[in-house]
Write a structure and sequence with these properties.
This is Zeta-carotene desaturase. Keywords: Glycoprotein, Hydrolase, Signal. One of its GO terms (molecular function) is hydrolase activity, acting on ester bonds. By secondary structure, the chain is α/β, with parallel strands linked by helices. It has one domain: Rossmann fold (3-Layer(aba) Sandwich). The chain has ten helices and ten strands. A six-stranded mixed β-sheet has the order 2-1-3-4-5-10, with helices on one face. A two-stranded antiparallel sheet has the order 6-7. It has a two-stranded antiparallel sheet with strand order 8-9. Strand 4, helix 8 and strand 5 form a beta-alpha-beta unit. Helix 6 runs antiparallel to helix 7. The longest helix is centred in the first third of the chain and has 25 residues.
Length: 389
């Protein structure tokens, strides 16, 4: 009898687990998200660095907003398309106090941000708004808005802030780590890259666990994109010939393999961390979004998808070893050069050599929002359903 019970259990338990997983993934009931809280770097900064230091200049923002609006693109970012898909207003930067409303969330992302603290000033490409600081800003935002919401008697004041119960019903999005990888690439040969990447992921893990402690329950986590495919780093824009003939230095798209390999290592360790979180916090949903694969698919099929070669840059001057970034002027070889934009940004993947155009961001957003690159394969609107088995 005991053997029969064990046999039945052996047959049925995997079937039941499979059925539960299928029900979880295919649930037709969308999540009732009330807000978005985003953390990241310039890939999702909607105005933090512009409000804190120097605003973007033309031609940034030219495609959609028709003026600079603090985004490192000609138009909308992936986080903008995420907000619009959830039928929320575009997210305001947390420190942008002019004309903002935080009723449906806030954006803590800041250009140049890293997960770990870096020994760089703002003028050296650094930022005080590390991932740890962004989490503390969120903590302060949650505490203060809760206090003001409960004290306010006028609905006209309350309508600018999320309700206290909305924080548990929000989706928390993350797109950060690429600047940490870039810093590690710049120090290759002087430190143990594997140990550094492990440390970066551990720092990320600590802050995400702290967010869970603060009440976050749905986590939408982007991995790092193919940093070796950023045009500004490609040999074609740097007069670099030392390594280009070496076997395996460049891939079939002209991307730098060892840089992408570091991003892949980060992504692998990040995914392992996400799996551990699912097992540890059974009351939360953790979605791992493979941005690397989504972006690399676009780069690999650029011409087929209606774009020019992925190495081409829409805005900026990158010739003969000179790098003049989008919107700037300089004297080069005795001649004043303005780093303006191309005629049609919608044909380009890269806006300024580092960041993507609105057209590319839309292409990528359309692929990740439906869950095609997610683990588990849940769409954004169902991302609260990733209950651990």
């Amino acid at each position: 009898m005991g053997f029969l019970v064990q046999l039945v259990a052996f047959i049925l338990l995997p079937l039941l687990a499979s059925m539960r997983a299928e029900d979880t993934i295919n649930s037709s009931q969308p999540c009732d998200f009330r807000a978005i809280f985003n953390f990241g770097d310039s890939n999702s900064d909607t105005g933090c660095m512009a409000a804190a230091f120097y605003p973007e200049v033309s031609p940034y923002g030219q495609t959609f907003f028709h003026e600079p609006v603090g985004r490192a693109s000609d138009g909308r970012l992936i986080i903008d398309f995420i907000a619009q898909h959830l039928r929320f207003p575009l997210l305001s930067a947390y420190i942008n106090s002019i004309g903002t409303s935080y009723r449906h969330g806030a954006n803590f992302a800041a250009g140049s941000s890293t997960i770990r603290r870096q020994n760089r000033t703002v003028f050296e490409g650094g930022t005080p708004f590390t991932f740890e600081i962004q989490i503390e800003q969120f903590n302060q935002f949650k505490q203060r808005t809760g206090k003001f919401f409960n004290q306010a008697r006028k609905n006209s004041f309350r309508r600018h802030f999320p309700r206290p119960e909305d924080f548990a019903k929000a989706v928390y999005t993350f797109d950060i780590g690429q600047n940490d990888i870039a810093a590690a690439i710049n120090r290759v040969g002087t430190e143990d890259s594997h140990a550094v990447i492990s440390d970066i992921v551990e720092h990320f893990a600590e802050q995400v666990e702290y967010l869970h402690k603060l009440g976050a329950r749905t986590f939408w986590i982007h991995n790092s994109g193919p940093i070796g495919c950023l045009p500004v780093a490609m040999p074609v824009h740097n007069n670099a010939t030392n390594h280009t003939q070496e076997a395996g230095y460049l891939d079939q798209n002209g991307c730098i393999n060892y840089q992408n390999d570091m991003a892949r290592e980060f992504n692998k360790k990040l995914k392992n961390f996400v799996l551990k979180l699912r097992a540890k916090f059974l009351d939360a949903s953790f979605i791992y979004v493979d941005m690397f694969s989504a972006k690399y698919e676009l780069i690999s099929n650029a011409n087929k998808e209606g774009f020019v070669e992925p190495s081409e840059i829409c805005c900026g001057y990158h010739k003969d070893g000179y790098h003049l970034y989008c919107g700037n002027k300089a004297m080069i070889n005795g001649k004043e050069v303005f780093a303006g934009s191309c005629g049609d940004p919608s044909k380009y993947i890269s806006w300024d050599g580092v960041h993507y155009t609105e057209a590319a961001n839309r292409w990528i957003a359309n692929r990740i929002i439906n869950g095609s690159f997610s683990d588990p394969p849940l769409s954004l609107t169902h991302s609260c359903r990733a209950v651990p088995i």
